[in-house]
TrEMBL record:
<protein>
    <submittedName>
        <fullName>Uncharacterized protein</fullName>
    </submittedName>
</protein>
<feature type="compositionally biased region" description="Basic and acidic residues">
    <location>
        <begin position="259"/>
        <end position="270"/>
    </location>
</feature>
<feature type="coiled-coil region">
    <location>
        <begin position="101"/>
        <end position="128"/>
    </location>
</feature>
<feature type="region of interest" description="Disordered">
    <location>
        <begin position="259"/>
        <end position="285"/>
    </location>
</feature>
<keyword id="KW-0175">Coiled coil</keyword>
Length: 325
């Protein structure tokens, strides 16, 4: 850390005026000591320390204000990410429900068509079949034929009446048997269809469980991500305050030369303040908001903080917003 930097070198301070004032006060204090004016020297020494403390408090107050703004930005970004997560999974669930409903509807239509086709095919086949009457009816028909050959019409008429009655009775039996076989075929088909419906519902339920697990995992990952961002930024902010308190007001000439070379290296690498604003944890709130703005255009309301401060367009502006003057 350089002597004229605040915290993690993200906002250099110009202390030339302060150092000149402190140097002059120290010169005056030494003169008072030489002239044995110890009370005035003591007072001047107190003023000297108080000036340093006030400057340190101003620096820390500015840093705390910036940190509070970053916390507000991170909170807003977190809310937006949670809302985006909820919106995304709401759409996924809506699409899933449409897909599942379509599958169930298609299966129901298929089963209705199969049942209709079964009935039509059964009736067609039964219509092609001839009624196979009993031996008694066939014997009576044979007797009737013999009577007609012998011109015995009265007895043939009596046999014809009995044949009609018997055929009608057996046709009713044929129809009852046919209806019974038809109902059995329908029941077998319906039983098979019920099994298919159970399988499809189980498949849909498995898909729902899998999707629910994915949503919970996605939410857990998002929660952990937001917690990591918050913890990283809080840790960086704590370190910044500690380093701001430990920063020296002045340094030796040799140290100043070393720091000048280090600053030249920073400029060459495009990191004039010693860190990359796009990666440093201390800017996590702004980074997250900017990333959201780049990935998806936000509404005018979302593009502003509760304090109505415009979001910076790029990380260069992030750096400019938080540079102390």
């Amino acid at each position: 850390m350089l002597t004229d930097d605040i915290a993690l070198c993200h906002a250099p301070r110009d202390r030339s005026a302060l150092e000149a004032t402190l140097k002059e006060m120290e010169t005056q204090r030494l003169a008072l000591v030489d002239s044995q004016e110890y009370d005035k020297a003591k007072t001047l020494r107190h003023t000297y320390l108080q000036t340093i403390e006030e400057e340190e408090q101003q620096v820390i107050a500015k840093e705390l204000t910036r940190q509070q703004m970053e916390a507000v930005r991170l909170t807003k970004a977190s809310q937006m990410m949670v809302e985006a997560h909820q919106s995304k999974w709401k759409e996924i669930w809506a699409e899933g429900e449409k897909r599942w409903a379509k599958k169930l509807e298609e299966q129901e239509e298929k089963h209705e068509l199969e049942l209709e086709q079964l009935q039509v095919e059964f009736d067609r086949r039964e219509a092609l079949k001839k009624n196979n009457y009993s031996m008694q009816v066939r014997d009576m028909l044979l007797v009737e034929q013999k009577l007609l050959e012998g011109h015995n019409y009265e007895e043939a008429a009596a046999i014809r009446s009995r044949v009609k009655h018997k055929e009608a009775e057996e046709r009713r039996g044929f129809e009852i048997n046919r209806q019974k076989r038809k109902e059995e075929a329908i029941q077998r088909l319906q039983k098979a269809q019920e099994g298919q419906a159970r399988q499809l519902k189980a498949h849909v339920r498995n898909e729902q469980i899998l999707m629910e697990r994915k949503r919970n995992k996605d939410l857990l990952n998002l929660t952990q991500l937001l917690a990591n961002k918050k913890n990283d930024m809080h840790h960086a902010h704590c370190i910044e305050i500690q380093q701001a308190k430990a920063a020296k007001v002045s340094c030796s000439e040799a140290q100043a030369k070393r720091e000048a070379k280090l600053k030249e290296e920073r400029e060459r690498r495009g990191m004039p303040h010693g860190i990359a604003p796009g990666k440093a944890a201390t800017y996590r709130g702004s980074q997250t908001l900017l990333r959201l703005q780049r990935n998806k255009p936000l509404s005018e309301t979302q593009s502003y903080d509760p304090e109505n401060l415009p979001q910076p367009a790029d990380l260069t502006q992030v750096n400019m917003l938080y540079t102390y003057t």
